[in-house]
C-alpha cells in the first residue's frame, strides 16, 4: 500500500516537473532551482588534439560522463580569444572562441550535443575589464582624445605617483602609468586587465550586446565574473588601510571605494530584464564575495529582480569542519531577507580544492564524502568543480620557475598562485597524463602522481569510491521529492559535533534526514525528541526509518533515539 501511494506520489511529482518545464514562471519551479552546475575549466578538462591544452571538442567528448554523473548544467570558464595572462579572464574578443580551445563551429556543436544530453551550458562573462590587447583598449590608450578614451578609467598621477592608494586584488597599485599619453589607467586585477568605465553608456551598450550575442546562441545563463567591482568611487577617495600586510608585501586595505558600489545594482537589474526577455529562463550567477548575509542578500535585488543565484562565499570559506558554524550559516541563508534561492559551492578555480581545505590529513577520504553530502543535500542550487567528485588534490608547483599563474610569482612562496587547483582532470590510470592528453605530450600543467589511483576509470569500478558516492547523492537529489523541493529544517541545534538537518517534502511522503559528524569522535545521537520529526507518520511520530546512504558500512534497523555515527561519518536517512 505504502509503495503504491509512494508511486502515485512520484507520478504526481514527475507530472509537476513536466508542467514546471512547460510553464515555470507560473509556479516558480524554475530549472535552475533543481540544477547542479558543474564548473569546467576548459584548459584542464580534456585535450582532444594533443597540444597539452584542453578544448571544446574535449568537453563534448565527455558529455556522456557528465550526464552519467548526474549534473544538469556546465559552467565553462572563459574560452574567448585571450592573451591568457589570467587564463581567459583577460578577453580580447567577446564574440569569438580562442583557437587554443577550438572554433565557433566547435562551440555550436557543443551546444547541440549538450542539448541532446539535456545538459545546459552557462557562459562566464567578464564585464568588469577586458584584456589590454582588446581593440577597445588599444584605441583608448592611443591618445587622450580618442573616442574610446573614456571607455576605460584614465587619471593623472598625484605627487609623482598614482592617483590614489587603490590596490589591485593581485598585488600592488591598481594603477599603471601608460607612458604614451602620460596618464594612469585603473585595473582591479592584473595590469593587463584594464577596468572598463561602466559610467559610460557606450560601454554598457557594448557589453549588453555581447550578452545578447551569447543568449542568441542559446546559452542557459552567465556566471558574472567579479561583478561587484564594476564601479569605482567617482571622487577617487583613498581606501582605508587595515592592520598587517598581504602575501605580496602590500599594506592590507579595505576595498571600500572599488567594490560593491550601489550603481552595480542598476546594471544587474537591467541584465536581469535582458535575460528574462529570452525563452528558457536563463540564469545569472554572481561572483561577489559578500562578507555578510545581508550583503549577499542585496544581490538578489530589492524585488528579486537582479541575480537569481549569488554564489555563497561565506559557506565555501568556513575552511574548517565545524557543525556550529555551518549550522549558523545555512540557517542564515535559509532566512535571507530577500527570500532568495541559495547557491552553494566549496571549490572552484580560485581556491585550493576542498579535499585539502577540509581534510585533516588523516581522514580526508571520509571527509570528502561528508563534504559531498553537505554540498548536495541542503536546499539550493549547487555548484561543483571538475575533479572534486574523484577527490582531486591541490597540487601546487614546487619551484617558482614552474608557476603559470602570475600571482604565484608575485607572491611566492606565501602565495603560490592557483595552478594547484587547475591541474588536468584525471580520467584513467595511464601515466603520465591520466587520459587528459596523449602520454607523449607535455600538458600545460603537470598531472599529479596521485592520478594513478585517483581517476574516473579506477573509481568507477570501486563500489565505495568517492565518485560512486557523488553519483548516488546526485541521483537521490534528483529523485527524492524531499530533496528536489522540500523545506530545510535544522535538527539538534546544540550538538557541537554533528550537523543535522531534515528535508521535508512539499506534501506528504518521506523526509530525508542528514546527519554529518564533523568531529573526530564517534558519537551516539538521538532525534527522538525532535518536534520536526514527531509530527510525521501515522502515530504522530516517525515510524519507518530507512538508510538511504552512508559514508561508512552500516546496515540493519536504525532507531531515531539512538544512532551511532563514526568520526566524520555522513548518514542519510529516509523518515516516514
Ligand atoms: C574572478 C575569476 C578569477 C579571475 C578574476 C579576474 O575572480 O574567478 O579567476 O582571475 O575574476 O577576472
What are the main properties of this structure?
Immunoglobulin-like; 19 helices; Oligo-1,6-glucosidase, domain 2; disordered N terminus; TIM Barrel; 3 domains; eight-stranded parallel sheet; alpha/beta; 20 strands; binds alpha-D-glucopyranose; five-stranded antiparallel sheet; 576 residues
Number of domains: 3
Query: Whole-number average pLDDT?
Result: 93
Number of alpha- plus pi-helical segments: 19
Hetero groups: alpha-D-glucopyranose
Helix content: 25-40%
Shape: globular
Computed over alpha carbons, the radius of gyration is 24 Å
Main sheet summary: 8 strands, parallel
What is the third-level CATH name, the topology of the largest domain?
TIM Barrel
Q: Detail the poorly predicted runs.
A: 1-27
Structure commentary:
- It is a single chain.
- The protein is an alpha/beta fold and 576 residues long.
- The chain folds into 3 domains: 32-130 and 201-233 and 262-470, Glycosidases (TIM Barrel); 135-186, Oligo-1,6-glucosidase, domain 2 (Alpha-Beta Complex); 486-575, Sandwich (Immunoglobulin-like).
- It is built from 19 helices and 20 strands.
- An 8-stranded parallel β-sheet has the order 11-10-7-3-2-1-13-12.
- 48% of the residues are buried.
- The model is unreliable at 1-27 (pLDDT under 50).
- Alpha-D-glucopyranose binds next to loops.
Amino acid at each position: 500500500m505504502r509503495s503504491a501511494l509512494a508511486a502515485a506520489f512520484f507520478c504526481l511529482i514527475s507530472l509537476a516537473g513536466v508542467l514546471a518545464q512547460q510553464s515555470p514562471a507560473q509556479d516558480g519551479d524554475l530549472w535552475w532551482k533543481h540544477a547542479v552546475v558543474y564548473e569546467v575549466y576548459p584548459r584542464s578538462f580534456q585535450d582532444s588534439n594533443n597540444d597539452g591544452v584542453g578544448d571544446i571538442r574535449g568537453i563534448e567528448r565527455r558529455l556522456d560522463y557528465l550526464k552519467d554523473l548526474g549534473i544538469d548544467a556546465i559552467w565553462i570558464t572563459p574560452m574567448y580569444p585571450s592573451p591568457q595572462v589570467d587564463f581567459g579572464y583577460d578577453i580580447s574578443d567577446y564574440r569569438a572562441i580562442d583557437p587554443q580551445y577550438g572554433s565557433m563551429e566547435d562551440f555550436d556543436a557543443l551546444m547541440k550535443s549538450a542539448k541532446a544530453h539535456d545538459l545546459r551550458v552557462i557562459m562566464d562573462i567578464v564585464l568588469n575589464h577586458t584584456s589590454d590587447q582588446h581593440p577597445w583598449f588599444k584605441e583608448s590608450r592611443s591618445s587622450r582624445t580618442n573616442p574610446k578614451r573614456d571607455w576605460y578609467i584614465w587619471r593623472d598621477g598625484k605627487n609623482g605617483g598614482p592617483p590614489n592608494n587603490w590596490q589591485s586584488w593581485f598585488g600592488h597599485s591598481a594603477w599603471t602609468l601608460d607612458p604614451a599619453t602620460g596618464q594612469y589607467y585603473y585595473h582591479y586585477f592584473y595590469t593587463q586587465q584594464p577596468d572598463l568605465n561602466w559610467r559610460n553608456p557606450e560601454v554598457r551598450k557594448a557589453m549588453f550586446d555581447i550578452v545578447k550575442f551569447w543568449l542568441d546562441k542559446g546559452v542557459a545563463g552567465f556566471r558574472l565574473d567579479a561583478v561587484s567591482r564594476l564601479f569605482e568611487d567617482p571622487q577617487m577617495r583613498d581606501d582605508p588601510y587595515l592592520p598587517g600586510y598581504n602575501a605580496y608585501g602590500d599594506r592590507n586595505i579595505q576595498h571600500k571605494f572599488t567594490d560593491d558600489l550601489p550603481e552595480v545594482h542598476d546594471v544587474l537589474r537591467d541584465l536581469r530584464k535582458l535575460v528574462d526577455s529570452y525563452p528558457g529562463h536563463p540564469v545569472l550567477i554572481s561572483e561577489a564575495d559578500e562578507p555578510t548575509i545581508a550583503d549577499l542578500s542585496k544581490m538578489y535585488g530589492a524585488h528579486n529582480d537582479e541575480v537569481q543565484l549569488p554564489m555563497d562565499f561565506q559557506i565555501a570559506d568556513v575552511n574548517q569542519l565545524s557543525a556550529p558554524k555551518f549550522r549558523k550559516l545555512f540557517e542564515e541563508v535559509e532566512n535571507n531577507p530577500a527570500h532568495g534561492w541559495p547557491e552553494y559551492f566549496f571549490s572552484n578555480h580560485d581556491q585550493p580544492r576542498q579535499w585539502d581545505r577540509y581534510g585533516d590529513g588523516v581522514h580526508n577520504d571520509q571527509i570528502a564524502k561528508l563534504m559531498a553530502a553537505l554540498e548536495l543535500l541542503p536546499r539550493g542550487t549547487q555548484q561543483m568543480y571538475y575533479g572534486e567528485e574523484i577527490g582531486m588534490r591541490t597540487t601546487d608547483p614546487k619551484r617558482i620557475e614552474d608557476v603559470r599563474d602570475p600571482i604565484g610569482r608575485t607572491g611566492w612562496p606565501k602565495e603560490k598562485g592557483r595552478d594547484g587547483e587547475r591541474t588536468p582532470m584525471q580520467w584513467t590510470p595511464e601515466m603520465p597524463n591520466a587520459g587528459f592528453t596523449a602520454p607523449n605530450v607535455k600538458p600545460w600543467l603537470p598531472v599529479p602522481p596521485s592520478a594513478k589511483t585517483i581517476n574516473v576509470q579506477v573509481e568507477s569500478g570501486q563500489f565505495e569510491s568517492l565518485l560512486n558516492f557523488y553519483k548516488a547523492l546526485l541521483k537521490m537529489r534528483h529523485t527524492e521529492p524531499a530533496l528536489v523541493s522540500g523545506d530545510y529544517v535544522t535538527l539538534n541545534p546544540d550538538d557541537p559535533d554533528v550537523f543535522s538537518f531534515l528535508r521535508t517534502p512539499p506534501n506528504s511522503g518521506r523526509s530525508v534526514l542528514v546527519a554529518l559528524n564533523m568531529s573526530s569522535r564517534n558519537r551516539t545521537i538521538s532525534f527522538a525528541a525532535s518536534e520536526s520529526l514527531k509530527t510525521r507518520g501515522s502515530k504522530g511520530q516517525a515510524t519507518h526509518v530507512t538508510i538511504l546512504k552512508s559514508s561508512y558500512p552500516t546496515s540493519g534497523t536504525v532507531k531515531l533515539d539512538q544512532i551511532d555515527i563514526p568520526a566524520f561519518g555522513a548518514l542519510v536517512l529516509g523518515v516516514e
